[in-house]
Amino acid sequence: MIPYANPKAQYLTHRLAIDAALARVLASGQYILGEEVRQFEQEFAQFLGVAHAISCGSGTEALHLALVAAGIGPGDEVITVSHTAVATVAAIELAGATPVLVDIDPATYTLDPARVQAALTPRTKAILPVHLYGQPADLTALGELARRYGLRLIEDCAQATGAQWQGKRVGTVGDAGCFSFYPTKNLGALGDGGMVVTNDHQLAAEARRRREYGWVDRYISSCPGWNSRLDELQAAVLRVKLPFLDAENRRRQAIADRYDSALAEFGIGIPARQPAASHVFHLYVIRHPQREQLLAHCHAHGVAPGVHYPLPVHLQPAYRGRITTAGPLTESERAAREVLSLPIYPELQPEEVEMVIATLRAFREESR
Ligand SMILES: *Cc1c(COP(=O)(O)O)cnc(C)c1O
Predict the structure, then answer these.
(1) Helices 35-48 and 232-241, axial angle in degrees (round to 10)
(2) How far is CA 26 from CA 31, 32, 168, 234, 275, in A?
(3) Which of 31, 135, 178, 263 is the most buried (most CB within 10 A)?
(4) Ligand 1 geometric centre to CA of 216 (Å)
(5) 63, 78, 80, 88: residue to mutate for ligand 1 pocket, most atoms within 8 A of CB
(6) Beta bridge partners of 100
(7) What is the pLDDT of residue 194?
(8) In what order do the strands lie in the sheet with 98-102?
């Protein structure tokens, strides 16, 4: 089976360097928030071109920390999308705030700026766009809305590490950027990890103390906090992989180019690319009205695509009937029925890409 993502292949690519880095940490005797974490935070900040990087336990926690550090909590509303990983919405509720879900632009699958205005209330405090599948949301339009209405702009960059909007890395345009190092992400650890980045000194200091019990000085809590730390083993692995990220993202883009040119003639909806954005193809997502039949056909022919995501957040049992929505979420619901994520990862071989294409071609021939 050709999977849609392959974290083990990533480990094998970097095996010698990763094994050496892990051995170094094991021998060091320092396993949490030590030298590896300090260095990785610096290197990641430098890679993005941002003043502060504060590591933490996961992408969900990065969002949670950024929201709390931006002063957002109970009584505040945060505008985001329903067509996302549930983590985006879960983090807003962890901060005690109220998510308000808005529909997506069906071409890019990201927060539609034209629908944000109608969702604003006197309680709105932030806009939280998701750079879904590796493509930045329209940060120019969303940035203008945030400025006009005095709102925070917090970017969910979990799927878009390294992507750019008008030449700037995502995460550095808004008040804060939040990253996940879950193993399948473009920059993946061998466990959980996350990062908040910002140019706002106060937000950075606030996130830094909240992640460790509100400490500024050890054992003395200056504000309520909790525990969301990155461990040394994960930081050491991420330091090995970061220098290769741009080249690996280019490899994803080359695979996407090949899919684009082959699939267009099959009448399959290929991903739209915005001219202002560089899309880093965390996922290569097509849409097809007979998604379930296409998925079954792929499974029968040795290809295992993913579905991101099968149910929008507002229809999931945990949220249905109680979550706030602004306007109809027609496009989010249609995307959930039609999207399919094809195999894409840096180690995917050219002949495997051709096998995926041949599988899709056969589906078209059979359904004629
Ligand atoms: C993966 C992901 C998250 C959460 O990251 P974790 O590290 O799994 O907590 C948040 N938002 C999006 C869009 C994601 O894809």
Answers:
(1) 40
(2) 8, 11, 37, 12, 46
(3) 178
(4) 28
(5) 88
(6) 79, 324
(7) 98
(8) 52-56, 194-198, 176-180, 152-156, 124-127, 77-81, 98-102, 324-325
Ligand 1 center from residue 224 Cα (angstroms): 24
User: Of 182, 280, 341, which is best to mutate to test ligand 1, by the most ligand atoms within 8 angstroms of its C-beta?
Assistant: 182
State the Cα angle at 195 between 124 and 4, rounded to 5°.
100
DSSP secondary structure code for residue 270 in this structure: P
Ligand 1 proximity of 180 Cβ (cutoff 6 Å): yes
pLDDT at 23 over 90: yes
Look at the chain and count its residues. 368
Ligand 1 centroid to Cα of residue 59, in Å, is 5
Q: Which atom of ligand 1 is nearest to the CA of 194?
A: 7
Cβ(58) – ligand 1 distance below 6 Å: yes
88 CA from centroid of ligand 1 (Å): 7
CA dist., res. 365 & res. 16, Å (int): 45
Helices (H), the chain: 7-13, 15-28, 35-48, 59-69, 86-94, 139-149, 201-210, 232-241, 245-263, 291-300, 330-338, 350-366
Cβ-Cβ contacts under 8 Å for 172 (sequence gap 6 or more): 48, 49, 50, 197, 199
Give the pair of three-digit tokens for residue 133: 């599948």
- Say if strands 168-169 and 164-165 run parallel, antiparallel, or are unpaired: antiparallel
Nearest CA to ligand 1 atom 7: 59
DSSP 93: H
Task: Reply yes or no on domain 2-243 having CATH 3.30.1330.30.
Answer: no
pLDDT tens digit sequence for 242-300: 999 999 999 999 999 999 999 988 878 899 999 999 999 999 999 999 999 999 999 99
Inter-residue contact 313 to 215 (CB < 8 Å): no
The model carries a pTM of 0.98
| Domain ranges within the chain, ordered by starting residue | 2-243, 244-367
Ligand 1 near 59 CB (within 6 A): yes
What CA–CA distance (Å, rounded) separates 79 from 89? 10
Q: What is the pLDDT of residue 266?
A: 85
CATH number of 244-367: 3.90.1150.10
